Amino acid sequence: MSDDFNMSMRKFLKQVGVTSQQAIEEGLRKKGAKAGESYEAKVVLTVDGLDVHHTVTGTIKGAE
Protein backbone atom coordinates (compact mmCIF):
# COMPACT_ATOMS: atom_id res chain seq x y z
CA MET A 1 0.00 0.00 0.00
CA SER A 2 1.10 3.58 -0.57
CA ASP A 3 2.59 5.90 2.03
CA ASP A 4 -0.47 8.18 1.72
CA PHE A 5 -2.77 5.24 2.44
CA ASN A 6 -0.72 4.15 5.46
CA MET A 7 -0.62 7.68 6.88
CA SER A 8 -4.36 8.23 6.44
CA MET A 9 -5.09 4.83 8.00
CA ARG A 10 -2.87 5.54 11.02
CA LYS A 11 -4.39 9.01 11.45
CA PHE A 12 -7.93 7.59 11.35
CA LEU A 13 -7.17 4.77 13.79
CA LYS A 14 -5.42 7.15 16.19
CA GLN A 15 -8.46 9.44 16.13
CA VAL A 16 -10.76 6.46 16.78
CA GLY A 17 -8.64 5.29 19.70
CA VAL A 18 -8.20 8.68 21.36
CA THR A 19 -11.79 9.87 20.98
CA SER A 20 -13.19 6.48 22.03
CA GLN A 21 -11.10 6.47 25.20
CA GLN A 22 -12.24 10.01 26.01
CA ALA A 23 -15.90 9.06 25.52
CA ILE A 24 -15.57 5.97 27.72
CA GLU A 25 -13.78 7.87 30.49
CA GLU A 26 -16.46 10.58 30.41
CA GLY A 27 -19.18 7.93 30.64
CA LEU A 28 -17.45 6.29 33.61
CA ARG A 29 -17.11 9.67 35.37
CA LYS A 30 -20.76 10.59 34.76
CA LYS A 31 -21.94 7.28 36.13
CA GLY A 32 -19.56 7.38 39.06
CA ALA A 33 -18.25 3.93 38.15
CA LYS A 34 -16.74 1.99 41.00
CA ALA A 35 -13.96 -0.57 41.18
CA GLY A 36 -15.15 -4.04 40.28
CA GLU A 37 -17.96 -2.87 37.99
CA SER A 38 -17.65 -3.93 34.38
CA TYR A 39 -19.32 -2.83 31.17
CA GLU A 40 -19.76 -4.66 27.90
CA ALA A 41 -18.53 -2.58 24.98
CA LYS A 42 -18.96 -2.88 21.23
CA VAL A 43 -17.44 -0.95 18.34
CA VAL A 44 -18.87 -1.32 14.84
CA LEU A 45 -16.73 -0.19 11.92
CA THR A 46 -18.19 0.32 8.46
CA VAL A 47 -16.46 1.84 5.46
CA ASP A 48 -18.59 3.52 2.80
CA GLY A 49 -17.75 2.24 -0.65
CA LEU A 50 -16.12 -0.93 0.66
CA ASP A 51 -17.73 -4.13 1.86
CA VAL A 52 -16.33 -3.62 5.37
CA HIS A 53 -18.44 -4.38 8.43
CA HIS A 54 -16.25 -5.17 11.43
CA THR A 55 -17.36 -5.54 15.05
CA VAL A 56 -15.13 -5.63 18.12
CA THR A 57 -16.55 -6.50 21.54
CA GLY A 58 -14.98 -6.53 24.96
CA THR A 59 -15.35 -5.75 28.63
CA ILE A 60 -14.28 -2.51 30.29
CA LYS A 61 -13.70 -2.65 34.04
CA GLY A 62 -14.20 0.34 36.34
CA ALA A 63 -11.11 1.94 37.82
CA GLU A 64 -9.74 0.42 40.96
Order of helices and strands: HEE
Beta fraction of the residues?
25-35%
What structural class should be given to the helix and strand makeup? alpha+beta
Distance between the termini: 42 Å
Number of strands: 2
Radius of gyration: 15 Å
Helical percentage: 40-55%
Mean pLDDT, nearest integer? 93
Strand order of the largest sheet: 1-2
Number of domains: 1
**Can you count the helices?**
1
**Poorly predicted segments:** none
Shape: elongated
Largest sheet: 2 strands, antiparallel
Describe this structure in words.
- It is a single chain.
- With 64 residues, the protein is an alpha+beta fold.
- The protein has one domain.
- The protein has 1 helix and 2 strands; from the N terminus they run H-E-E.
- The chain has a two-stranded antiparallel sheet.
- The N and C termini lie far apart (42 Å).
- The mean pLDDT is 93.
Question: Key terms for this structure?
Answer:
1 helix; 64 residues; two-stranded antiparallel ribbon; 45% helix; alpha+beta; 31% strand
List the helices and strands and how they pair.
Blueprint: H1 3-31, E1 38-47, E2 52-61
Antiparallel strand pairs: 1-2
Quick recap:
Helix content is 45%, strand content 31%. The chain is built from one helix and two strands. It has one helix spanning 3-31; strands at residues 38-47, 52-61.
